[in-house]
Amino acid sequence: MNDRVPRLPPLNALRVFHAVMRYRSFRKAADELFVSPQAVSQQIKLLEDTLGIMLFDRKGRMVDPTEQAILLAHFVQAGFDEFAEGVRRVTKTGHRNRINVNASPYFATRYLMDRLEQFRTTMPGVVLQLTTMVEIPDFGRDDIDVSVQWGFGEWAEFDQTLLVRDPKIICCAPALAHRVRKPEDLLSMTLLHPVLATNLWQKVLRHLDLQDIEAKGDVQFQDAATMRRATLAGMGMGLVSAIDAIDDLRQGRLIAPLGIDALSTMKEEDIPGFYLVVPRGYRRVKTIAAFCDWIKGEDWSAMLRREMVTDDIPYTI
């Protein structure tokens, strides 16, 4: 199998091809590029020879693109769009007053929203745009400067800093609680999984000394809020974030049949968390550096410590 990267054609030939595809005419493309129609024809011929395919059917002054040309045009257009975006970004770097932040929906609603005004106070005049994509963004394509991601810190290609752990509590609806008296009972239950960490239950079962044992079945959910709602609805056993679980346990909406502290001694590397993720080099931009310094300086675990006072919770039946 040949995995070699194909030799790219000259950029100027692609630029000419891009113009011809828009106008379907060598002459009109030549007018835009301030060259002669013969020069355009030569560049197209060079591109065809380099690729080893025919790109256009010549019909007098008009040309019809072949199927291969139409396919190639989509990628060439995307390439020039990326060039334009790169130029836009680097030319605005020095005086940029906007920062585009993506955050896990859970972190945004539970942690970030109440404190964003503090950042705006430290950086008056900076426009902050917040999006809430669950999966890690394509920083260039999505125009994102920094992201707060839920997971286990597995983004080695970026700079990353743990902001706060997201400990879980094994919960279920009250109607299911009588079926789970000991850890082994989990194996007969439907387990509700987060899509971003389908191995989280395996880590939990290992912690409970249930190693190399397959559970009965599972259902996967894209985000924490949906999985919590499924747990409340009695779909199965959920690994609910401690802050939410404590509130639901107090109100009697959920039960922690194995106890609130069943996972309290899990290895730190097996506990997910929220991480600040930044492409290397982005911190050279003043506004991005300021946001990173601010968010890393906040004590995000304070709310978790406050909520984990659980003496008043009737968590079992």
UniProtKB/TrEMBL annotation:
<dbReference type="InterPro" id="IPR000847">
    <property type="entry name" value="LysR_HTH_N"/>
</dbReference>
<dbReference type="Pfam" id="PF00126">
    <property type="entry name" value="HTH_1"/>
</dbReference>
<feature type="domain" description="HTH lysR-type">
    <location>
        <begin position="9"/>
        <end position="66"/>
    </location>
</feature>
<dbReference type="InterPro" id="IPR036388">
    <property type="entry name" value="WH-like_DNA-bd_sf"/>
</dbReference>
<keyword id="KW-0238">DNA-binding</keyword>
<keyword id="KW-0805">Transcription regulation</keyword>
<keyword id="KW-0804">Transcription</keyword>
<dbReference type="InterPro" id="IPR005119">
    <property type="entry name" value="LysR_subst-bd"/>
</dbReference>
<comment type="similarity">
    <text>Belongs to the LysR transcriptional regulatory family.</text>
</comment>
<dbReference type="InterPro" id="IPR036390">
    <property type="entry name" value="WH_DNA-bd_sf"/>
</dbReference>
<protein>
    <submittedName>
        <fullName>LysR substrate-binding domain-containing protein</fullName>
    </submittedName>
</protein>
<dbReference type="InterPro" id="IPR058163">
    <property type="entry name" value="LysR-type_TF_proteobact-type"/>
</dbReference>
<dbReference type="Pfam" id="PF03466">
    <property type="entry name" value="LysR_substrate"/>
</dbReference>
